[in-house]
Amino acid sequence: MSATTDNSGKSLVIPALGGLYSALHDAGETLLRVVAGLFLAIHGSQKITNPFGAAEMVEGLGFYPGAFWSLLLACTEFFGGILIAIGLLTRPAAFAGMFVLLVTVWFHWVTMGQGFFGAEKSLLWAAILLFFVIRGGNRHSVDARIGKAF
Fold this sequence. Notes:
With about 150 residues, the chain is an all-alpha fold. Helix content is about 70%, strand content about 0%. The protein is built from six helices and no strands. The chain has helices at about 20-50, 55-60, 65-85, 90-110, 115-135, 140-145. Helix 1 runs antiparallel to helix 3, helix 3 packs across helix 4 and helix 4 runs antiparallel to helix 5 (about 115-135). It is elongated, with a radius of gyration of 18 Å. The protein starts with 17 loop residues before the first helix and ends with a helix. The model has no long low-confidence stretch (mean pLDDT about 95).
């Protein structure tokens, strides 16, 4: 990217911002990954302290046995969030988190009958995680440091 174009090669309306955009490109993506991962881990921290606490809820969604799926949910959110934040196994962790969020979309939209407005936060988070399923962890990740990506 030159100082007068963006990443797609298009001319910038304000060319003087090209250097700033270029400098912040990777940092912005890294910040989004770290924040998304930490927020997912914080959300999952409530579940990891009682990993079987959601067993009845997940059975209500049709996931049997509830104890297994409750444990998997807690681990996916807590440990998956940590993996996303540090950028280790970024794609599989983001995919697992995205799957969990798409289940919550179904729960709010269909099961609870709340429609888009009940599911919009889960849709937004699922889209953020889809971004990292596609892109991976970028150069500021453990995946990049070890030279391997899924």
